[in-house]
């Protein structure tokens, strides 16, 4: 790959902050090491080091869309500031090729005392545009921001929504070669977010390089084709967005499992102390719910790498059946589709939910549903139908759940993701994944053009009248 093809190149970047416990320590650090050096003593540091980033390396090609994902505190915003040049790395190198437009922290790049109009010209000048070029783009910027007469008011009077509207409008209308977007878009309303994503897609289709940070996994999956996973300042992996997002979900699940395991241990310890206090001899059993995470990923098959969970239940297979109960992977709109999920229970358990998520080949979530959705409707309607959530399962038990629907989908290839989860409450408010399987099954939908034709991702079954 030629260096001319690279828009962003990050090589072995590290960023360290000095953390002082008091202003006095900061003063000591400023004065004493120099004095210690002069008198021949070994200098002493009066601060703690915090490595916000530790050995980050990746590259983004021109015209490529890349995402950066990770939990809060993983170093995402620090990395973006290093790339845009607002921070300097402690070590390592960062190269960028092309004019950068960045939408980072809310209001960054704006002078709060200037009006919206003045800030438009200020930002344009920073990006290297002449006044005439900004004049030519002003109407487009004002139209996209859509904040009316507020453009003539100081930015310090703006709401957070107005601030992000103007900031995004300025950055995307000034034709950047590299667009960097942080979580700021989350502030805008739903309609404005839709317009932003449409504009981002237009820019990327025109060859603009995108670096996108968001906790919204669907947005990352849709807008980017590769992603970088960060955790506590370290780079865990770089690869296809779909694979990195699965690894991110697995990371979140592992930490959740560790949290519940520690909670169980704390409760068991408290119970043991109470038993001693009351002279009771009752052994406590602490389930190791994180045992499934101890497997070495290097020895996993591709199927194993596409799944995660606590392991108290397992999805053994997912099959797609037609209306005759036969295996099939090709359907037309109007056909009946049955998704059969075979499960294996590893310990006595109840309060289960078996569900699926359907995505098209572009990675867009089309639908998600499970047995708990049906149970919720049963309770709401005070029906006496049996609830799956109340069913009790024994260790070693095997069963299957059929999820039926009439196909109203547009022509595409669809992926089925399946999951069995423990729901402590019957409303999705306290969920623990026992087993999740990506790419559990696939099916294709064809629209028969001569018989019944429609466009889009789903059939709304419209009627015309006149």
Automatic annotation (TrEMBL):
Keywords: ATP-binding, Nucleotide-binding, Transport
SUPFAM superfamilies (alphabetical): P-loop containing nucleoside triphosphate hydrolases
Name assigned to this protein: ABC transporter ATP-binding protein
CDD domains associated with the record: ABC_KpsT_Wzt (cd03220), Wzt_C-like (cd10147)
GO MF terms, alphabetically ordered: ATP binding
Keyword Nucleotide-binding: yes
Similarity comment text for this entry: Belongs to the ABC transporter superfamily. Drug exporter-2 (TC 3.A.1.117) family.
Region (Disordered): 280-306
Biased composition (Basic and acidic residues): 291-306
Pfam family, one: ABC_tran
Domain ABC transporter: 33-257
InterPro entries: AAA+_ATPase, ABC_transporter-like_ATP-bd, ABC_transporter-like_CS, ABC_transpr_TagH-like, Bact_Polysacc_Export_ATP-bd, P-loop_NTPase, Wzt_C
